[in-house]
Amino acid sequence: MNVALPPIMISSGFLPTGSLVESLTHLSNEVASVEKLPFVQFRNISTTIRRIKLLSSLFEDIRGTDSPLPPSSILCLTELFSVIQRVKLLIQGCKDGSSIWGLTQTEFLSNQFHVLVKEMGGALDILPLSLLNLSTDTREQVQLLHRQVKRVDLLVDPRELQKREELLQIMKSNNQMNSRDKGSVDYVKVKEVLSCIGLRSPLDYEEEISKLEEEAEKQAGTGGLFVVSNINNLISLVKYSKSVIFIDRDKEEIKENFKQRSAYMKRNQDISSSSQSILSNIPDEFRCPISLDLMKDPVIVASGHTYDRNSIAQWINSGHQTCPKSGQRLIHMALIPNYALKSLMHQWCQDNNVPLIDDSSSSKFERSSSMCNLSEKAIDHIPATKAAMGAVKMTAEFLVGKLAMGSPEVERQAAYELRLLAKTGMGNRRIIAEAGAIPFLVTLLSSTDPKVQENAVTAMLNLSILENNKTLIMSAGSIDSIINVLESGKTMEARENAAATIYSLSIINDCKVTIGTRPRAFSALVGLLREGTSTGKKDAASVLFNLSFYKANKESVVVAGAVPLLVEMLMDDKAGITDDALALLALLLGCSEGLEEIRKSKVLVPLLIDLLRFGSTKGKENSITLLLGLCKDGGEEVARRLLLNPRSVPSLQSLSADGSLKARRKADALLRLLNRCCSQSHNPVG
To answer: Where is each U-box domain found (predicted)?
Structure first.
C-alpha cells in the first residue's frame, strides 16, 4: 500500500518518537478493550483484536525507549495507525449497526477485515525489527504476527452463512405472504435466527428496527433500489415478528398470572358474591391502564403495552406520541389487536358470568374479492407523524425515479415496492401520486413481463382508493391500458386486479360514462365472469353492477352476453356469486334489451322460485324483483308458469308475512298481479 506521507516525516537520520507512538498506544488499547462484541462478525473481530493486542506490546516497548526511530519504522507505524483506525471504525460499525443487515452483508464485511489484515502485513514488511530496541518476547510476537498475517485467508464464518441463508428463506416466505394466498412464515425459525444474532427481547427488536431504518435512510439514493427495498422488507419482517413472537410469550405469562389469580380468587371469593363483587375483582391484566375498566377491545401499541382501543385512540388523537404507561416515544401509531389477551378475557367473563361486551366500533374494513387487498389485515392506523410522511415521500420519489430511468429488472422491483407502499394509508397514496408515479405505472401496464404488469395494475388499484387519484388516473389516459390488462393480462391476478381497478374508478359517475364508451370493457368483464377464479367472478359481477347504474351501460352489458352467463351462475354453487348475479339481473330489467334477454331463459323462473325459499335475505328480495318485473308489461306467460308451479304461491305468501320490508312489499305486489291473472280464469289466489 503506497501512502503519501506529510513532508515532516520524510527526512534523513533518526526522528523523535513524538506523538505518533502515543497515539498508536492509545488507539490500540481502545481497540483491545472493546467489550460486548457483536454477534455478527464475531470471529473476525475477536481475531483482529487479538492481533492488535500483540501490536500494543510493540508500541509499549517503543514508547519506553528514548532512542529516536529510523524513518522506515515511522513509515510502518504511520500505516499501522491508519489500519488500526479503520479497524476501530469497522468494529464500531458492526456494534452500532443493524445485526440483521450485517448478517446479509457477511461476505462483504469479512472481506473488509481481510483487506485490513493484509494491509497490516504490508506495514510490518517494512518494520526494521533489527534497528529497534525491543524485548525478546515482543520481537518474537511481532515476527509470529507478521508470518500469520502474510498467509492469512479470507475468513467467512460458515455459521453466519447458514443463518443468512435461513434469513433469506424467511424473507422469501414473507414476500410470498404479501401475495394472494401464498406462503407462510415460520416464526419459530425467525425467533431462532434472530436470537442467534442477539435479538432476544422486545427492546432488542425495537433497537434493531431503528437501526434498520437508519440504514435505509443512509442507503437511499446511494445503495440502489434492491438495497433499500431489501432493508424495507427486513423492517417489515422484524416488526411483525416482534408482535407475533412476544404476543405468544405474553399469552403464556398472562395465562400463568391468570391461573394464580383465579386460584387466589377461588380460595377467597364467597360463592354468594354478587356480580358487582365479581367486577371489582377483575384481574389487573384485563383492565385498561388508562380507564382502569375491563377492556372491550385490547390492542398493543409500539411500546408493547396493551390498552383498550377507544382509550388509546383518544390518547393518540389528542396529540400524544408516547406510551401512557412507560412514557416511551411510540415509533409508529399502529394499534395491533391482542387476540391472546382477548381470548383469556372472554374465558374469564364466561367463567364469572360477566356479560361479554363486543365493541362494534372496532375498525373492520372488509371488502369482498380482490378489493380486500387494499387494506392491511388486523391493523388500524392513527395518522402518521410528519417524519414518517417524510420517509414515505423520499421512498416514493426514489422509486418513481427508478421507474423513469431503471432497467427492466429495476422497473419490476420498483413497481412491486410501489404496490406495497400504496397498499396502506391514504397519506401514502397521495404522496405516491404527487411523486408522479401514475403516468409511469400506466406505461408499465403494457409490459410483456407478467410480474411488471401485475405489480403495475395492482399499484394502480391501491392508488385508486384515494378519491383524488381516481381523477388523476383517468386523466393519465389509463382506461384503455387497464381494459387491455382486463382483456388479455399475462396472469389471472393481473386481470382480476384490473377489474377491481375499474370498479374503484367507476364509483365516480363521469368514469362510468367514460368506461361505457368502450364496449370491449364489457366483453372483457363478461370473459372474466366466465373464466376467472371465484374471486375474479365476484369482482367482474360487482363491476358490471356498478357500471349498470348508468342507464346507457345496461344495454352494453346485455350485448356483451352477460345475461345467459349470470343465469348459469345461479345454478353453480361453486361460483359463490348467487346474490351478485341476482342483483345484476334485477338491475338489467331496467332496460328493454335486458328484459327481453332475461325472458328468453327457460330455467330462470324455477330457479327464482327455489331461491324464494332457500336464498339469502338479499337473494330473496332480488328474486321477487325479477319475478315481478318479468310478470309486468306483457309477462303473462311468466305469470302462468308461476301459477303452474305449486311452490311459488306458498313461498310468496310466506315472504309476504315474514320477509324483509322490501320483500313483503314486492311479494304483496306480485300476489296481487297473480290474483288478477287468476281472476280472468275464475280461480283467484292469495
So the answer is: 281-355
